[in-house]
Amino acid sequence: MTAENEREKLEADNYVLRWLLWLRHGCNGASLYGDDGEMQCNTCMIDFKRDDPLDIEQKWIEKVKHIPKGARWSEVFERMVKAEQDADS
Ligand SMILES: [Zn+2]
After folding, report:
1. Model pTM greater than 0.85?
2. Domain extents in the chain
3. What residues have a C-beta under 5 A from ligand 1, the ion?
4. Which one, 20, 31, 56, 62, has the greatest CB density within 10 A?
5. pLDDT in tens, 16-74
6. Which of 4, 16, 26, 6 shows the shortest CA–CA distance to 49?
7. How far is the CA of 18 from the centre of ligand 1 (A)?
């Protein structure tokens, strides 16, 4: 595989993963804006097409309230799941 092919493969993979994350990141479908190839969420204010993955992670963490400073990702995930369960009930 040439360097150019590897780059194209990485870009294609990146696009698919961003699209899946945008589609299934936990916000209601009414919050999602996907016209013209956009991948935005009007609730999280995350631009899944343009935001750097580390910025996406930070915005995602900030949307879960009361995260202790220095929390590990597993704690954040548990709180997100609980917040989503509470929202559903
Ligand atoms: Zn969202």
Report:
1. no
2. 3-88
3. 27, 41, 43-44
4. 56
5. 999 999 999 888 899 999 999 999 999 889 999 999 999 998 888 777 665 666 667 77
6. 16
7. 13
If residue 26 lies in a helix (H) or strand (E), which one and from where to where? Answer: none
Do you know the residue count of the chain?
89
3-class DSSP assignment, residue 73: helix
Q: How far apart are CA 86 and CA 89, in angstroms?
A: 5
CA of 26 to the centre of ligand 1 (A): 6
**Comparing 78 with 40, which gets the higher pLDDT?**
40
Burial grade of 83 (CB within 10 A; 0-12, 13-18, 19 or more): middle
